[in-house]
Amino acid sequence: MSRIAVRRFLRSKESLATLLILLVPVGSACAADRPNIVFMMSDDQAWNGLSVPMHPDLDWSKSSIVETPNLEKLAAQGMRFTAAYAPASVCAPTRISLQTGKSPAAVHWTKASRSVTAVDGYKMIGPRNVRQIDRNETTIGKLLRDAGYRTAHFGKWHINGGGPAAHGYDESDGDIGNEYAFQYRDPNPADIFGMAKRAAAFMEQSKKANKPFFLQMSWHALHAPQNALTTTLAKYAQRMNSSVDEKRVGSAAIAENLDTGVGMVVDAIDRLDLADNTFVIYMSDNGSGGGGGRRRGGGLSGGKGSVWEGGIRSPFIIRGPGIPGNSWCHERIVGYDLFPTYCEWAGIASSKLPPQIEGGSIVNLLDDGKGLVKRPREEMVFHFPHYQSGDGPHSALFLGNYKLMKFYETERLALFDIAADISEQNDLSTQQPQKVKELDKLLEQYLQEVDAQMAVSNPQYDPAKPPVSRKARGGRGKTKKTRKPGTNKRANQ
User: Fold this and answer.
1) Mean pLDDT by 10-residue block, N- to C-terminus, for the chain (493 residues)?
2) 348 shares its domain with 387
3) pTM of the model
4) Quick check: bond before 187 cis, omega within 30?
5) With contact defined as beta carbons under 8 Å apart, do 157 and 172 qualify?
6) Are 317 and 392 part of one and the same domain?
7) 345 with 477, same domain?
8) CATH number for the domain including 423?
9) Residue 284 buriedness (CB in 10 A; 0-12 / 13-18 / 19+)
């Protein structure tokens, strides 16, 4: 199918192909006319962690150290989104959001590791999450499989509930989490190359069966950074004038190895002559690092475990039929927009989508990067009622060019013009109190409507005692004993 034909197909709501999907039994030959979908998600990779710029006007929107030539090639063949967001600033909440099309706040899963308790000594107590996807959820895997797609989920699942097989995936690596990656070392670091080979085999089998496919690649990397190829570790140790054992060296090395795996998957698509009918998407599950301030010379504030831009803004590249090469889109999108996007590509009627999904299809952005994403709500909310980054429990709301941040320990509100101030350096809250009040009301309404879990006051809190230091299992690094909650550098400027 040519690019023009696919584009016309996607734009025509009453196309013959759509009618055939509704009338002909699942598994028939006509199903092969629908586009294939390959979604690849890295782990803990920063918005500017690739050698691919994520913004045409910001030279710091790419890494000056890491080399990702295959992603450079993918970007040259497709479209980059400068304002793409992971649904959460930590791993598992993003993953369940992608499966359900709902925000982490709505599914009551907002943290990857356990939340603090009263005895940990923080001023507030974060909510406890069930941390298991319900088998009754209508996942994107189930919808696409019911529509005639072959489905596969390779790599990290990390949301329990019986694993991918219980949620609509024909093939998978099982109910696995972070620990799985550490057994794989050179010559298959973090199972990157093994996953790529399984993906190629799955796509080849799908082509032979004349069925469209949905392939989700949840790479373990950048976890297990010291498992990178020995030669790549040596390369970055020399480049960074450091030891091969240092974590930042391993992170750079495994990022390049991951890029090689991405290249293997894309090469398989091209080799199997599937490119003209296959959408390829690449993003990260959250930002990187453990928080902190903006680097000199430019950068994003915050990091993993915070809803500053560094915690939630994600690299996002898409290649596929009708998408112009080396193009850009500046419209704000979020990971759970992919749920209705996939359904539109697959010809699934909107009446079959779960009524509570919060995303909107991005299909109309893909011709020229212009357009609007129609969601049930105009505002977009990120809710993190926990301790991890030093900010304490906090939330953010986007509306238009504005971003409101709320810190629950102090009830402090901060306001940014995020279009003009991507690094969140200029707090406008004192200059625009009415806008702050308006957005705060919208935030409260949203959290009430989705019955979001909130942090509550700790009756055992003693300000004279520092909180207990413990490892944040869902992130990287430790909760620091000496840092008072709410004292993040950027949060107090």
Assistant:
1) 44 42 39 86 97 97 97 98 98 98 97 91 94 93 98 98 97 96 97 98 98 98 97 98 96 98 98 98 89 61 96 98 98 98 97 94 98 96 94 97 97 97 97 98 98 97 84 36 40 33
2) no
3) 0.90
4) yes
5) yes
6) no
7) no
8) 3.30.1120.10
9) buried
